[in-house]
Amino acid sequence: EAGVVQSPRYKIIEKKQPVAFWCNPISGHNTLYWYRQNLGQGPELLIRYENEEAVDDSQLPKDRFSAERLKGVDSTLKIQPAELGDSAVYLCASSPNLRGRSSYNEQFFGPGTRLTVL
Amino acid sequence: AQSVTQLGSHVSVSEGALVLLRCNYSSSVPPYLFWYVQYPNQGLQLLLKYTTGATLVKGINGFEAEFKKSETSFHLTKPSAHMSDAAEYFCAVSFAGGYQKVTFGTGTKLQVIP
């Protein structure tokens, strides 16, 4: 079974430029997450999708960040314009459908995109 | 609110020695607890989890962790370190009841000395 796929793996841009990250979750996984991992820190949730609906975007800086998951499968996270402080690893994760389940639901992580803003 | 604290951002052990990575949690309701491992330039991989039932949980690669409610701890151990265990380890907490956000600790980087 293929895991979570992310591209690109590395991206270097100058500040004020736009950048986009792409994620393809594990087939059949309805829930998709974007995390940001700063150097020396654990991942922090940016946004969570249930199918194509963003159900938790409270931590997404909406002035410059946007995300979409138009067909409920793959997703794109965009930053425009990028700032120096956006340098981090952006992780995508997915998990099976949560509806009707009250127990733990494992998240499967992709390898991440390491963004460097100069 | 829930949180986890990992004691020690870096831990060094000799190959064959005991590995002990510490994690304490804070949660107002019964927690779900996890340990994830992250190898360089890779995503996080679940090592083990505690949800309910037996408080000593075994995971992959010979790791285990014990949930101690009285100490609010979930320390990760492995009897004998292997060079391949060198990685960063993250403790995380969530709780039952539909989707609940997973909160990660700041991580502990394990170095294994030959």
Helix content of chain A: under 10%
Percent strand of chain B equals over 45%
Radius of gyration of chain B equals 14 Å
Low confidence ranges of chain B: none
Largest interface, counted by CB within 8 Å of the partner chain's CB:
A-B, 27 and 24 residues
Order of helices and strands of chain B: EEEEEEEEEEE
Rough shape of chain B?
globular
Structural class of chain B: mainly beta
Helix-strand topology string of chain A = EEEEEEEEEEE
Helical content band of chain B? under 10%
Q: What characterizes the major β-sheet of chain A?
A: 7 strands, mixed
Mean pLDDT of chain A: 91
Radius of gyration of chain A: 14 Å
Count of beta strands of chain A: 11
Given the helix and strand composition of chain A, which structural class is it? mainly beta
% residues in beta strands of chain A: over 45%
Query: Got a strand count of chain B?
Result: 11
Tell me the span between the first and last alpha carbons of chain A: 37 Å
Q: Which residues of chain A sit in consecutive blocks of at least 5 with pLDDT less than 50?
A: none
Search tags:
heterodimer; A: 118 residues; mainly beta; seven-stranded mixed β-sheet; 0% helix; globular; B: 114 residues; six-stranded mixed β-sheet; five-stranded antiparallel β-sheet
